[in-house]
Amino acid sequence: MHESIDPMADALRATPKHCGDLAMSGFDDLPQRLCARLSVITAALGAACLAGCMVGPDFTRPEDELKAAQLTPRQEHSGDPRASTAAVPMQWWQLFNDALLTELLARTLKGNLDLQLAAERIEQSRARLGIAASQLLPTVGANASYAREALSEHGKFAALGAPTDPSNFWQLGFDASWEIDLWGRARRSREGAQAMVVASVYDREAARVALAAEVARTYLQLRGTQAQLDIARQNQVVAERTLALAESRERNGVATRFETSSARAQLATVKAMLPELAQRRNAQMNALALLMGEQPRTLDAQLRQAMPLPSLPARIPLGVASELAQRRPDILRAEAQLHAATAAIGVAKADFYPRIGLKGRIGVEAFDSGDLTSWDSRMFSVGPTVYLPIFQGGRLMQRLALNESRQKNAALAYRQTVLQAWHEVDNALDAWAAQRRQHDELLVSYQQNKEALGAAERGYQQGAADYLSVLTAQLNLLASQTRLNTSATNATLTVVNLYKSLGGGWDPEQAR
C-alpha cells in the first residue's frame, strides 16, 4: 500500500495510514492465542506486507516550471542574430578558441581541492546508503564465553542442597536477528539515503559548473588587467614624448613653466597606475593557481606575458528553456534533497507501528570443554519479537512534524532554486546583449579620441594650439581606452555568466 503526494503542495500533514486492519491501538487487545501462533504466521505476514505495504508519501517529481519560458534577449536587444537554440556545449569555454584557457580548465578540474572534497562527500553518502540498506538484511554474530563460578555455601541454593564446589561453564554459538520491514521503515530509510547519494553527485557537478565559470572569469579578468597595463604603458610613452616636447619649447622660449609642469604631472599620473595594475595582475595569477590547487606564483612564467582578450564566440548556443531544469545541477540537487525529505516522512510514520522481528540462537554449552563436541550439548532458541510504542512523551509525533516541516522547506528551496535559475538566465542574456551594444559605441569613442589626440599634438608642435588641448586629448584618450578595455572584458564575462546560468560545464552522462 502506498500513498501518493505532491511535494509542491502547501499542506503535507496527513493522518498516518494503516496496512490492513492493524491499527496502532488494535494491538492492545491481541488474544493470547495470537501470541502463541505469532512465530508461525510472522514469516507469511512479512512476505505479504513486504510486497507493497509502506507508510508515508511517495515522491513525485515537481512540475517543470520552465516549460513556457523563452531563452531570448529582451526586446530592446533582440536584434543580435548570434543566439541559437542549439544544445548548450558541455565545454562551453572552447567557444573562445583560447588554447591556454582550455588547458588551465583541464588542469583545474583535475587538481581543484573543492572538487576532491565534493568527491569524498559522495563516497560518504554511498557509505551511509550501505548502512541504511543493511537494515533490510538479517544480522548474524558468533559468541563464545567461559566462566568459572561457585555458589555461596550460605546461599539459598546451598540450603536446598545445590553443590557449592567451583565449576566451569562453556558456551559457543551463533546469534541471528531480523526485523521484518512490515511498514517500510527500512525501505524508506534506504530510499532517502539513495536520494542523498544523488544529491551529493549533483552537488559535485554544481561545484564543477561554478569552478569552470570562476576559472574562466579570473582568466579573462587577468587578460583585461594585462591589456589595461599595456594601455597605461602606451600612455606613458605618449606622456614622455609630450614632456620632452614641452621642455624643448620651454628652452626655446615658446612655452611656459606651466606647460612643462603639467606635462610632468600627467606623466607621473600615468606611471602611478602601473604598480596597482601589476599588483592586480599578480593577485589574479595567484587566484588561478589557488583554483588549480597549486602554490603561489606557480603560473607566473606561463601567464605573465600579456595576451589579448579572447574573441567573443560567433554563435551563442542557448538550448531550450524546457531543458534548463535538467541542465542545471543545482536544480537536480534540490530535487534529490526534496526526495530525501519526503522519504524521511515515511520513516517517521513507520515508527508509530509495531516492529516485528525474528530472533534465534544456536550453539553448544557444557560444564566441561570436552563435552562441547557432544550432540547432547546443543541448545537453540528461535521466536518472534514484537516492539510496540505505547508512550513516548510526544517524541514520535514531534519527529513526524519535524520531518514534514523539513519536507516543506525542501519543496520551497526547490522552487526558490528554479526561480533563481530563471532570473540568472534572464539577467545574463540581458547583460550579454547590452554589453555588445555598449562595446560598439565605446569603440567609436576610442577611435575619435585617438584622432583628436593626433590633431592636438600636431597643432601643439606647430605652435597652432596650446598644451591644454593636448592634455585634454590625452586624458580623453586614456579614459576611452580604459572604458573600451573594461567593456571588452565585461563582454567576455557576460558569456561566462550566461553559460554558468545555463548549467554548462558538466556531463550529465558521466554524473549518473
The biggest sheet, with number of strands, parallel, antiparallel or mixed sense and barrel status, is:
4 strands, antiparallel
Which band does the percent of strand residues land in?
Answer: 5-15%
What strand order characterises the main sheet?
A: 4-5-7-8
Helix share bin? 55-70%
Overview of this protein structure:
It is a single chain. By secondary structure, this protein is α/β, with parallel strands linked by helices. The protein is 58% helix and 11% strand. It is built from twelve helices and eight strands. It has helices at residues 32-50, 99-111, 113-133, 156-159, 185-251, 257-291, 300-303, 324-327, 329-350, 395-461, 467-501, 508-511, and strands spanning 3-4, 57-58, 83-84, 139-149, 167-180, 316-317, 355-366, 378-387. The chain has a four-stranded antiparallel β-sheet. A two-stranded parallel sheet has the order 1-2. Helix 5 (185-251) runs antiparallel to helix 6, helix 9 packs antiparallel against helix 10 and helix 10 runs antiparallel to helix 11 (467-501). The protein is elongated and about 140 Å long. The two termini are 30 Å apart. Mean pLDDT is 86; it is low at 1-51.
